[in-house]
Specification:
It contains 21 helices and 30 strands. The chain has 726 residues and is of the alpha/beta class. It binds adenosine-5'-diphosphate and zinc ion (2 copies).
Length: 726
């Protein structure tokens, strides 16, 4: 349970009491009295507490930071949201003394001269009882929804004592999920390949805690998960089903609701805090959800009977929390959670993370492979188009090389749908002055501003801090009017598409079109119902979508994916291209994928063309070993931030010298990150790459020591820092 303790004059601190003891009382310490006990029943169970302690240590943050992430704000006394209010509704029932046929007849007769009242009373009788024996109640709002029923008439009936109104507490989280779980109902018939995979998974779990299900896109991994989840429910266990971004998985959520009915609870950051409080409390109660499907934060929920953790699309980078602390990876943390809770883990992906696949090849994880699509539909056919050559031959129109244009026209003529992938949003990447080569940058961040257009108005916006300003008509540096744009984003693609494929209905899916609540669902379901023909989008269109009429997927420019300065950039590019391709031709007919690139010779093009994960993996794992990157080393990035550049830099240099004494080979020089200033804060980093065999406690101690020594210096007292693990 949580207690508050006064420290200093004004501050109250919250702490969780995990154990009571009289053993270790130290008389030299002046203990403070506990001011309040906030809970009447425990707020967390032992598994959670152990998990949180592990997390704080592994991800190098405080247990308080874990608590902050784990407990919904409505349950925290130190936040402005504290004071969770239950949701209530007003319900109507027939008054006690009228709850039989004769009395009701009398009541109705007495209303002969007031037909509206009589009608409403009849209506209520009709809705709340069948044969005058059992009397039920009904939601007031539901009654008043019918047009003929007025609130005034209802109030008169209440005044006359025929009916009563009362307030009742209702759940925010169970309302829309009343479908009963029925073992026999929503049957799952696994195909032969699926059944074999299912059997192998169960067999592997006899000897391994973690199994990787490597199944090509559309191999039907969801059905296998469903069968395994049902098994766990039927033996009274609980399941944690992690998905990358719940907002992007409406199709999967609907499927799961159908199969699991009232057993399914959903949890993610898009929920209101009240909803999160209710899910959290329900999981602590005697009647918890058996299955929680959620984004990464769902790993913090209480589960007393956890038997299985599924991590769908385990390679997804959105499992990594960037900000604030704890900066954890939910897949890795979930594996630890399962170990503490004595549960099994199933990781699923068509393009497993290199680290995960490595663990499978060395036997740490079990491995199950599905190479067939469900229904034996062929994997999509991949065509690589050379942008350089098309441009040389003038065979292009805007971002569309002629072979792609032809293919799109052909696809639309067949009444099939098209997905176009472009990795950037906005109109262009940035604008440049032709005379002085200057690009307008954000006043707060070290990045170029991105041109956008809304309802005909052009403006420049910063993708890091949200700053925006009108589009300049001349260069702010030299006054020249020769401003050109470089690169293109989804908005421009939309304009060009509308121009080139006149008459096609075009929709766009990116951060800008999905700001409003539910906008994302609308765009997806519209496209699923074929209310649009072409869907343009950023990486959002690559995520787990299952449309049956998409015959063509095109990547307009694969090159921007290949040049990110990150040791994972090849991996990310391969995963993205393979996942985007996986949206084509998922049912019945084989689909086509067209990839436009300047780098036709890049090995990645061959891997994607052949859907050859293993070649990708073998190449990448050798590279990682040669260049000493994970999984062969542990990587720590220590980030220093300050509003003065020199202070951040000098602090980092100071710490670097200490670290280099202990880890001379493993410590990098101080470097600026790609974006070195965000919202007027300067960033400097040091990277440590340390052999896996080195004890992690020792490494952490040294890092902490270096940071402490640095921030103990007077000039660095205000420097902030954090550590990114793995
Ligand atoms: P994955 O997650 O592996 O990409 P899905 O689980 O989305 O693949 O399955 C692809 C398609 O095949 C979906 O439309 C799904 O409904 C269908 N499907 C898969 N397995 C079965 C099955 N056993 N019975 C009926 N339909 C299935
Ligand atoms: Zn200029
Ligand atoms: Zn900015």
């Amino acid at each position: 349970m949580r207690v508050t303790v006064p420290l200093g004059l004004k501050k109250n601190y919250t702490a969780i009491v995990s154990e009571l003891t009289e053993k270790d009382i130290n008389n030299d310490i002046q203990y403070k009295e506990i001011k309040d006990i906030l809970d009447t029943t425990p707020i967390a169970n032992n598994t959670q507490l152990r998990f949180w302690q592990w997390m704080a240590e592994y991800y190098m943050c405080s247990e308080g930071e874990i608590y902050r992430a784990a407990i919904p704000a409505g349950l925290k006394p130190d936040t402005k949201h504290y004071g969770y209010k239950p949701k209530t509704e007003i319900r109507i029932r027939i008054a006690q003394q009228y709850q039989n046929e004769q009395e009701l007849q009398k009541a109705l007769n007495s209303l002969k001269k007031a037909p509206a009242q009589q009608q409403l009373l009849l209506n209520i009788i009709y809705l709340t009882t069948q044969d005058y024996k059992q009397f039920d109640d009904i939601k007031r709002a539901q009654l008043l929804n019918a047009r003929q029923n007025s609130a005034t008439t209802l109030n008169t009936l209440i005044e006359k004592g025929f009916i009563v109104a009362f307030e009742q507490q209702v759940s925010r989280i169970e309302n829309n999920n009343t479908k009963k779980y029925d073992e026999s109902k929503e049957n799952i018939n696994l195909s032969e390949h699926q059944q074999a995979a299912y059997d192998t998974i169960n067999k592997l779990w006899q000897t391994k805690n973690v199994v990787l299900l490597h199944g090509v896109t559309s191999s039907g991994k969801t059905e296998i998960y469903s069968q395994i989840i049902k098994d766990v429910i039927n033996s009274d266990g609980q399941v944690l089903f992690l998905v990358p971004e719940i907002a992007l998985t409406t199709q999967l959520t609907e499927r799961m609701k159908k199969i699991l009915g009232e057993n399914l609870g959903i949890y993610h950051s898009g929920f209101s805090d009240e909803e999160r409080v209710e899910v959290y409390r329900k999981q602590l109660s005697d009647n918890p959800f058996k299955v929680i499907m959620g984004a990464r934060s769902a790993i913090f929920l209480p589960m007393t009977q956890l038997k299985l953790v599924i991590v769908d699309e385990e390679h997804e980078s959105s499992y990594k929390q960037q900000n604030p602390a704890p900066r954890y990876h939910a897949r890795n943390a979930a594996i630890m959670l399962a170990q503490i809770a004595n549960a099994k883990v199933l990781l699923g992906s068509a393009t497993p993370a290199v680290e995960t696949y490595y663990n499978a090849t060395i036997g740490k994880y079990g491995l199950v492979t599905l190479t067939h699509r469900y229904g034996d539909v062929q994997m999509p056919d991949i065509e690589i188009i050379d942008i350089k050559e098309c441009r040389r031959k003038k065979m292009y129109d805007g971002p569309f090389m002629d072979p792609l244009t032809d293919k799109i026209k052909h696809t639309l003529n067949e009444n099939k749908q098209v997905i176009l992938f472009q990795n950037r949003r906005g109109l262009a990447h940035y604008i440049t002055c032709e005379d002085c080569a200057v690009s307008p940058t954000c006043p707060n961040c070290e990045v170029s501003l991105t041109p956008h257009i809304i309802r005909g108005n052009k403006f420049l916006s910063c993708h890091y801090c949200g700053y925006s300003t009108g589009m300049p008509d001349k260069c702010p540096e030299c006054g020249s009017i020769k401003l050109t744009t470089t690169g293109i984003g989804t908005e421009k693609v939309q304009q060009e598409t509308q121009k080139l494929f006149n008459g096609a209905r075009v929709a766009r899916l990116d951060t800008d079109t999905t700001r409003r609540k539910n906008a994302h669902q609308h765009i997806i379901s519209d496209f699923a119902q074929h209310n649009s023909d072409i869907l343009i989008g950023t990486q959002m269109v690559s995520k787990g979508l299952d449309f049956n009429n998409v015959a063509l997927v095109a990547v307009l420019n694969a090159d921007s994916l290949l040049t990110l300065p990150d040791f994972r950039s090849t991996e990310r590019a391969y995963q993205l291209l393979e996942q985007v391709s996986g949206r084509a031709g998922r049912r019945q007919q084989q689909g086509t994928v067209i990839i436009q690139t300047y780098n036709t010779q890049h090995p990645i093009m061959q891997w994607v063309k052949e859907h050859d994960y293993l070649s990708f993996y073998n190449y990448t794992i050798k590279e990682r070993q040669l260049l000493r990157y994970p999984p062969f080393v542990r990587m720590y990035t220590i980030v220093f931030k300050h509003k003065e550049k020199d202070i951040a830099l000098h602090a980092a240099q100071y710490a670097q010298q200490i670290l280099a004494k202990y880890f001379p080979q493993e410590t990098s020089n101080v470097t600026e990150p790609l974006v070195s200033r965000i919202m007027n804060i300067y960033y400097q980093t040091i990277v440590l790459r340390i052999d896996n065999k080195v004890n992690i406690h020792q490494t952490r101690q040294i890092i902490n020591y270096a940071i402490q020594q640095t921030t103990a210096q007077n000039m660095f007292k205000t420097v902030q820092f954090y550590v990114e693990i793995d």
